[in-house]
Design goal:
disordered C terminus, 166 residues, 4 helices, eight-stranded mixed β-sheet, single chain
């Protein structure tokens, strides 16, 4: 993986640098579906996310993480649609709080061979159900916002509007 931790947290209260994540979505039978993956350490449902990458914009870093962690290819919005906080476990005794800037990635291809295929599971969920599966309240709100907005207007327009207001 092409990721580095720019600073080493000194204690449990340390703050990590910003990360970038992708909400991988598709339209299926007229409803928004979101691809969630399992985390490598606890097996809980999460979105692909990771550290900043040299020579990549935040959106491009999120897109790369979606490829490495979920085998996703698709178009990503260059502007964030939200953010959320979570606690990242660095070692059993060290953690830090991370802020994740989230980008919408419309999935065009899902492949079976990808870098972390043996370390994670992936599954499509209706956006509302995906929101119930994740632990982070702010991420839950971003997911619910996708579903609510897509029910009223076409997804492409919602993403464009999010880009204009972000």
């Amino acid at each position: 993986m092409n990721q580095t931790l720019p600073i080493a947290p000194l204690d449990e209260a340390a703050v990590c640098p910003e990360q970038y994540g992708a909400i991988c979505w598709r339209m299926h039978r007229g409803k928004v579906e979101v691809l969630l993956i399992t985390s490598r350490d606890t097996g809980r449902w999460v979105i692909p996310k990771g550290w900043p990458m040299d020579k990549r914009s935040p959106a491009e870093a999120a897109q790369q993480e979606a490829w490495e962690e979920a085998g996703v290819r698709g178009d990503i919005a260059e502007t964030s649609i939200g953010r959320f906080n979570y606690v990242k476990l660095l070692t059993p005794k060290r953690s830090c709080e991370c802020v994740v800037k989230v980008f919408a990635l419309r999935v065009s291809e899902l492949v079976d061979k990808f870098p972390e295929r043996n370390e994670r599971r992936r599954k499509w969920f209706a956006a509302e159900k995906a929101a119930r599966k994740v632990l982070e309240p702010e991420l839950r709100q971003v997911l619910l916002g996708l579903s609510a907005n897509f029910a009223i207007e076409p997804p492409e327009l919602v993403v464009e509007q999010a880009l204009a207001t972000a």
